[in-house]
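Sequence and fold
=================
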Amino acid sequence: MAAPTPTPSSRRTFLGRLSLPERNYLADALRTETVGGVILLVAAVAALIWANAFGSSYAAVSEFHFGPASLGLDLSVEHWAADGLLAIFFFVAGVELKRELVAGELRDPKAAALPVIAALCGMAVPAVVYTAEVLIGGGSTDGWAVPTATDIAFALAVLAVIGTSLPNALRAFLLTLAVVDDLFAILIIAVFFTEKINFMALIGAFVGLVVFYLLQRAKVRGWYVYVPLAVVIWGLMYNSGIHATIAGVAMGLMLRCTRQDGETHSPGERIEHLVRPLSAGVAVPLFALFSAGVSLSGGALANVFTRPETLGVVLGLVVGKTIGIFGGTWLATRFTKAELNKDLAWADVFAIASLAGIGFTVSLLIGELAFVGDADTINEIKSAVLIGSLTAALFSGTLLKLRVRKYRMLHEAEELDEDQDGVPDVYEQGDPEYHLRMAAIHEKKAAEHRRLARLAGAASSKPDSPA
């Protein structure tokens, strides 16, 4: 009896090559986020200098109130930055999530399992680390959610500073982690940091969202329609008692992110392309400017490593995030029968997991919500977020630098476009016309080399001129 014919492996490749449309989208999105991340770093440093060198003026500006009091919107500058500007950030996060679900890495449930499991473990383990630390030290568990967030802009800024050319698959994995992380951060804010609900305002916000959805379905276009409607929805959501940034992510999720006949970009892609620079370059840096200005006196810094709540935040970001994401990813590959890209190593996944420990923007926001009314604790929690994020950045930067030569080789191979048609060669190698173009290019180069060789030979054989 003949032995059965072996079947080819059905294992899915983890961190394999992206499709060309996904690669192009990723390049455009990360270019904006990287620039925004550098601006974010500058804003954070400016906030620290301003708050510590000119504390009275920083407090005066941050606490200055303006807005229509009759509408319940007489807010401080800091409050406007946290509730208003971050709504733009979460709007972009909502669009990103919708696009990932319908056209990106999350559209295939099997492919989505890995980043989703990694993101969930990357939020659960830091929460457990924080809770264990404060229970042992006798602190408050209120800040359990602070170390659960990842800041993609800050992480990309670190990559820009250390000059690591990560392969596209690793960048896509980091971005997908951050998108899923943002979704669950929004759910945490909505569920755990909502105390009183004004149902009339909430119903009004819901009606506004329905109108927003119907206008999208009717293909109504024009910023002069959607911007006023978005402001009304945001104001109603704020007055409902639910954090106003929920309005941003809800509207982002309602945009259509699939292309129809004749469209080069879906409405979601087009609007995200317009709003992302505003989010990354203005909204998030301004939030950082009025949230990262914490006192860094010797006593405050010492308390970060002695107080259980702040130490829990640092350990959650640096240790919890790394173990959670790496461990979740490793286990998921075993259960989903996925195999790591042969060009990469598990050390690369570990480095990305440690990079995700940079939890700046959303961690600062959750810290303010978790300890509302306790200014001293909020200041120390923010200090802990800054120190934890900085530690994660230095640790991950060191790990990534160890592999920088390998990353550069992989990145250059992915981006090589020898025939200069705007499409990297790795995406054309199965196209017969590509091979014809490359043969012509190589023949042209060979002819040029032969011509130069003949010229060199003629020059060397020419007799010396008489003295």
Q: What stands out?
A: The two ends are 91 Å apart (CA to CA). The first helix runs from residue 20 to 53. The CA atoms of residues 352 and 449 lie 44 Å apart. Residues 19-193+243-415 form a domain with the Na+/H+ antiporter like fold fold (CATH 1.20.1530.10).
